[in-house]
Design a protein that fits this description.
The protein has helices at 2-9, 13-87. The longest helix is centred in the middle third of the chain and has 75 residues, at 13-87. By secondary structure, the chain is an all-alpha fold. It has one domain.
């Protein structure tokens, strides 16, 4: 790590040049190896993203169904309470 720290501090220009030239020489040699790896990683990421979207859509649909059922049950319970209140006469206290 001290090599990179020295290079960024401007301490040793020869080391910086050597790293730059080395990277320029090595990059063409490792690019054919890294390209398929990068493509595979991107494909895996796309597949995971698509599967996540599908799972989220299914979860959204299930949540919406449960919410609709709960609202329906609440409206039925409210209607039953209103019907029961209408059927029972009011009590008067003497």
């Amino acid at each position: 790590m001290s090599i990179f720290e020295d290079m960024f501090k401007g301490g040793n220009i020869v080391t910086g040049l050597a790293i730059g030239i080395g990277a320029a020489v090595i990059a063409p040699a490792i690019t054919p190896v890294l390209r398929p790896v990068a493509k595979s990683l991107l494909k895996a990421g796309l597949i995971a993203y698509d599967q996540g979207r599908v799972a989220l859509a299914e979860l959204n649909e299930q949540t919406g169904d449960i919410l609709a059922e709960a609202r329906h049950e609440l409206s039925e319970a409210g209607q039953a309470a209103r019907d029961a209140a209408a059927e029972t006469p009011e009590r008067t206290t003497h």
